[in-house]
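If your schedule permits, I should be very grateful for your opinion on a structural question. Kindly check, if you would, that the fold set down in the tokens agrees with what the sequence suggests. Thank you for your consideration; the sequence and its tokens are set out here:
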Amino acid sequence: MPLHFLIRPRPVAALAAASALLLTLSACTPGASTDPDTGSVPSAAAPGLPSSHVHGLSVNRETDQVLLATHEGLFDATRSPATKIGDTNDLMGFTAAADHGVFYASGHPGPGSDLPNPMGLIRSVDGGTTWEQLSRQGESDFHALAATKSGLVAYDGTLQTSPDGKTWSAATAGFVPAVLAGTPEADTVLATTPDGLQRSADGGKTWELISTAPVIQFAAFASGAEVLGVEPDGSVHYSSDGGSTWTRAGRIEDQVQAMTAVAGAEGKPWIWAATTEGLVVSTDAGATFRPAGAA
């Protein structure tokens, strides 16, 4: 069932971006023959990508491992072709914790899986090879999921926070997030919506609209304060203060499906984006991009 959004009056350019974002957002329908996020028939995976749709990205700068969370499960895309990790499950929500190899996910079980549908919140402590059930099994499909310093923020039709992934409390929010972006280094959380960027400074409990921010579709923290955002048209923006103010950096030419960022040298974070044409990377805070793996 599609998610519906109320869009408040904005300048023409912002309304155009919001309309483009609205067209990309919908809830998933297990077993449907069309792509659950666009309503269109899924196309073949882009070159270098293991799936026609990527929902999450994680990069470990110490090992340079690149992980893709997809409809067909988790893949290590550090080398080509990408290598499957663990069972085949539809990972709609995916986020990395502070500790190396620890991930949280949600979605639907794949063929042969003994997990309930929906999967609720699951956790892996071995890099995605195996998963344990934490909470809301058979109840929640968290399409948006983020880790913070104080816990987790997730959306399954209700925006909720949890200190441990087991007990949940409803947050004070009147919006539907497309993406939740957080970092284990801080309690700042961003929520992208067609109506504008929402920001929380208390781990997702309360929120405020950042009226001066661009209409961002994807966002990712590179550190406790540095954030990168991408508009529906591919325009990339950089924030050095946790999403309060933004500066336009560059542009990703192809349609973005998921992104992540890590701290870089001289205040220039690195960005990875899975697009309809493949995986791209920027080493200059989004000013320029090249295919991942290219020299």
